Amino acid sequence: MVHTDARFVVGVVGNVISGGLFLSPIPTFTQIWRKKDVEAFDPKPYLTTVLNCLFWCYYGLPFVNPNSILVVTINGIGLFIELMYLTIFFYYAAAKGRKRVATYFICELVLFGALVAATMLAIPEHKMAINRRLRAIVVGVICDFFNVLMYGSPLFNLKDVIKTKSVKYMPFTLLVANFLNGCCWTSYALIGKVDYFILISNGLGAIFGAVQLMVYARYYKTTPKDEDLSSKTTNEVQLCTNV
Question: What DSSP line would sit under 114-176, residue for residue?
Fold first, then answer.
């Protein structure tokens, strides 16, 4: 009972932190709405997050991985928010940009549908009775694969930070929130019955977040103070939000 209560509390905290991360691109899309132009903004981080949320929503359903309602709630909320971002982008994008977004989105739906069909048909309920976690293992591995990719993607920018000795495009508050997000969901996975799939990707996410914070601390003082940070959102890569 104590483990259940503690897990629930940590999960709620994780929902709050993740929710804040999902809302972090609001200034970017406010700028798009005001200018009525997507300019050089890249929709791929948001499209990737949509697919990630779909996978984790499916993973948290009772017939896949029981007792994971908080995983479903935050990813369901995140999915809705990301779809709103893509709707705004689609509305203000040129024809080429709209076609690209639509193509990626349709491919994601096909991929997600194929995963659901494959796991539901290839692992029917009578097999679930023999091995209750078989479906969760298959879906969890796929979720972890995409989660680790998303957590690790900002690391590719570190070489530019080290080269320029500037943290201009490393928003400190988001770095901290991303690190705490990984730590919180790692704790959630360890309380009570260990959920290795949430543990692996978020444990790595916490490590990746710590590395980014150390790089930020190393190069913060060498960042030119007169750099124009108002253009930051144009080149800034959206930090991932996962569970």
Answer: HHHHHHHHHS-HHHHHHSTTHHHHHHHHHHHHHHHHHHHGGGGGHHHHHHHT--TT--HHHHH
Q: Give the residue-averaged pLDDT of 139-148.
A: 88
Whether the CB-CB separation of 178 and 211 falls below 8 Å is answered with no
End-to-end CA distance of the chain: 23
What Cα–Cα distance (Å) separates residue 238 from each residue in 77, 103, 106?
17, 21, 22
Q: What is the DSSP letter of 220?
A: S
| Residue 213 phi, psi dihedral angles, 5° rounding | -65, -40
CA gap 195, 193 in Å, rounded? 6
- Return the pLDDT at 130: 56
CA 238 from chain centre, in angstroms, equals: 9
Residue that wins the pLDDT comparison between 32 and 151: 32
Burial 182-206 (b: 16+ CB within 10 A, else e): bbbbbbbbbbeeebebbbbbbbbbb
